[in-house]
Amino acid sequence: MRTALDIYTGFFGLRERPFSLVPDPAFLFWSAPHRAAFAMLDYGILTRAPITLITGEVGAGKTTLIQHLLASLGDDVVVGLVSNAQGDRGELLRWVLMAFGETAPQGADYVALFARFQAFLIERYAEGRRTILIFDEAQNLSRESLEELRMLTNINSGKDELVQLVLVGQPELRDTIRRPDLVQFAQRVSASYHLPALDGRTIQDYVAHRMAVAGAERPVFQHAAVEAIQAATGGIPRLVNQLCDFALVYAYSRDEPEVGADLVRQVLDDGVFFAGGRPPAAIRVLKPRPIRVMDWPLDAAG
Q1: Whole-angstrom Cα distance, residue 266 to residue 269?
Q2: Does domain 32-195 have CATH number 3.40.50.300?
Q3: CATH fold of 198-270, please?
Q4: Are 68 and 28 in contact, with CB atoms under 8 Å apart?
Q5: Annotated domain spans of the chain
Q6: Strand (E) positions, 246-289?
């Protein structure tokens, strides 16, 4: 039975798909902004920053950085990861307890849940271990939830805070934290970094890196093709992956050994690349030119 890997990997001499949308540490590309973001994460952890803030557009590579951070931490660190938590402050504490593998009994009120979490932190501190609580997709947290998280950072033992927070989210999270009624929260953010979109030169290196990791022994994407991909995606890695993947499928279907700018333009013109919800005007950055309609082979659909 044919699989997704059979679509074009053999044609280009690849061992695996180079542009999967699933984060894979083997394909981690250390651009200058990603190095800076990880350095700030590391700095926040080592200096026991009460709150570390990392933001970036959807698909900028934030989750990949968090996974790399988790893999680099030692046994002296206890980590709880919460993704897309919602609800009131009592529900928030339930999410937190479950992130650390602690039970949160149904019917327990806020005071009981807070006492349970505080006891957990004290136990870890007595063992000589640090506790880090990471919130992914933190832009979805309400103002009340953020204020509750600030209160958690007040749990301490003398001069040592018992829990460090790492908030990871989209750019609007920074705007929320800058609100006048969250000034106390903002004052506890000791480490912060915003991941920008990648520039054209970096995208060239990014595409070449992923192709090489997948097994490519020759250049497949022409320079002009990558320029077109960068323009259409705005330099967002996840969107770059999606458009590159489509371009490889198109090149395979047309029996073309390289991906050129015309082929990328054809992918855009055919409307198969939705650009992660970006409006059509955002991707119509290339002047269209007449291109023959792609002739799909019967076996391309699998």
Answers
A1: 5
A2: yes
A3: Helicase, Ruva Protein; domain 3 (1.10.8)
A4: yes
A5: 32-195, 198-270
A6: none
Give the integer Cα–Cα distance in Å for 189 and 182. Answer: 11
Q: If you search the block for the tokens 């018992």, which residue do you land on?
A: 162
* Burial call 254-267: b when 16+ CB within 10 Å, e when fewer: eeeeebbbbbbbbb
Residue 288 pLDDT: 35
* pTM (global) more than 0.90: no
In this structure, the number of other CB atoms found within 10 A of the CB of residue 96 comes to: 25
Q: Cα–Cα distance between 85 and 112 in angstroms, integer?
A: 20
Q: In order along the chain (302 residues), what is the average pLDDT of each group of 10 residues?
A: 67 93 83 93 91 91 88 92 77 91 85 93 94 94 91 82 94 94 94 92 96 96 96 92 95 96 94 62 38 34 35
The helix or strand, by DSSP H or E, that contains position 82, with its residue range, turns out to be strand 77-83
57, 171 in Cβ contact below 8 A? yes
